[in-house]
Design goal:
homodimer, alpha+beta, Jelly Rolls, Arc Repressor Mutant, subunit A, four-stranded antiparallel β-sheet, 39% helix, disordered N terminus, DNA-binding
Amino acid sequence: MEAIGEKSALGSLSRPEARAEAHRCGCKPPNGLAAPDCLECAIKELSVCGALDPDEFEALERIGRSLCAPAKTTLFEQGREASFVYNLTSGALRLAKLLPDGRRQVVGFALPGDFLGLALAPTHMFTADAVSPVKFCQFPRASFSHLLMSKPHLLRRLMEIASQELTLAQEQMVVLGQRSAEEKVAAFLIGMRERYARLNGQCVYVPLPMTRLDIADYLGLTVETVSRTIARLAREKVFVVVPEGVRLLDVAKLKRIAEA
Amino acid sequence: MEAIGEKSALGSLSRPEARAEAHRCGCKPPNGLAAPDCLECAIKELSVCGALDPDEFEALERIGRSLCAPAKTTLFEQGREASFVYNLTSGALRLAKLLPDGRRQVVGFALPGDFLGLALAPTHMFTADAVSPVKFCQFPRASFSHLLMSKPHLLRRLMEIASQELTLAQEQMVVLGQRSAEEKVAAFLIGMRERYARLNGQCVYVPLPMTRLDIADYLGLTVETVSRTIARLAREKVFVVVPEGVRLLDVAKLKRIAEA
DNA sequence: CGATACTTTGACCGCCCTCAAGCATCGTGG
DNA sequence: CCACGATGCTTGAGGGCGGTCAAAGTATCG
């Protein structure tokens, strides 16, 4: 998985295949290379940007760029220098840590509004791959860090997001450490539903842009167990499996399993 | 487990047994009820306070109190209102989340220098119990939060700690999700060793103030498995079990197992 | 259409959990 | 001082959940 454009205008984007991002992700201008239009941004209230004044938006727009990329693009890789911080505006990312022997732990999925770069570390702590076509804003880490110190509002907001993220990580520890396969899958689906509900409103359709393997590596299970568990829950009429997701039939039952 | 002194000068400390904290924890004045002496604090460089100027120390001292408590004291409980934030200066705490059916996930152990209250949430996300006699500083959450906004240095430092904590939580997800029992125990011991090394300097003796059950609930295992795994590693001469901890014999081997 | 990646299903097995019992340590009270 | 109960730790025997291995089915894309 070589990194193309490490020194290109795109930053450290890379893809296993190659080229032709422009028409594949449908961005105009090609690759969506443009200053972000923060005031028009659909998810700004749900994101870091939510805490900003109009003049602060301008400061952000000046240092940032709006980009897009097709599925399977690697935004950045674990261990590499963290040159940028990111804000996802559309699509979904898989955030994963790789072990030397090939095992993988997915530490989260980023959805629109999510901020990447909370770690403030000089290198990335995990790899971020697009599991669907994505749009996102990209800010040079140094500029962003500098902006932080002059805008206590922004820093405070980032701190709130970091602590929210920490709380979520601790919830996930409970899932990984204490729950059965069925409980894990149920908790995952309820979690995804709630996250999409904040974006699109409550809905019985839960999108699952990631693969079964991604889910398995997120829950500390194998693909087979995830597949079997989903199949069983579908057989028990808790939901039906539809392309790219599930349609919930018995939300109460799913919640009961998840919160067991 | 009733909370004594919810409205007392001590804040929300509670213990299953009762009274007599003064001589049992050996604090003078009784209960260690005193303004903290931040400038004299042994672990200030390793803690939040590390980022402060002398005048900022004074501000902290004004709003805070130095306290101590014997083992098994509950500093605060999951779900209760978070009236205070804390800074541990001595001893160790178990931070745990309880499931409705009695299962428990230990989300971490606090050691001297660790800050509690990063979540910035109105209620506590986990229960904090002393696993050994502890000394700590306590700050009213509102005053502390207010101080934060007037001291960008302090906020920035807290943000760094939060992101460090988040990174650690993601590491722990890898341990919980991907590693075998033996790898979990090894990773735990290496982790504890490193944390104590920052406090006391590198040393082959690793203190384990918590019980086997605490370790098990931290690693997503059972007591029996933890006990058996420790016994096996001891049999293989990786370490010897000593009161309140282990003495490492083969650090390299332990690291090899942990990082597998 | 053929290649590739993803998903599902089945059969088997092993790691870790469960259940049970014995042992060590410690604080308490007679 | 020792008896005791409580708490924590260890060890053994057996079973089950989820992992492993294998193969077939399905969708996607060049």
